[in-house]
Design goal:
By secondary structure, the protein is mainly α. The protein contains two helices and no strands.
């Protein structure tokens, strides 16, 4: 999930959703159906991927880091109690 590191996750989400909207508008306005359908499918995948990463994966990683830090703190406290 760390493929696009040049821009933030929020910016990626906006970018991919804008690309999806432009592809759908392009499908309605032009006769180039096959390239537009392919672009729409790819844009849809990227939009959903960015949305899931922003909504679920990043908060989960943050929570996991917090829990690991708490676990290390508790282990250190237990080690200090056992050594005394």
């Amino acid at each position: 999930m760390t493929r696009f590191l040049a821009i933030s996750s929020q910016s990626q989400c906006w970018l991919f959703h804008t690309a999806l909207a432009l592809n759908i508008i392009g499908m309605m306005l032009t006769d180039l159906w096959l390239p537009m359908v392919v672009g729409t499918v790819i844009s849809t995948y990227l939009s959903v991927d960015a949305w899931v990463r922003l909504r679920y994966v990043l908060p989960l990683k943050k929570e996991l880091r917090l829990l690991q830090h708490e676990l290390e703190t508790l282990r250190q406290q237990q080690y200090n109690q056992n050594s005394n």
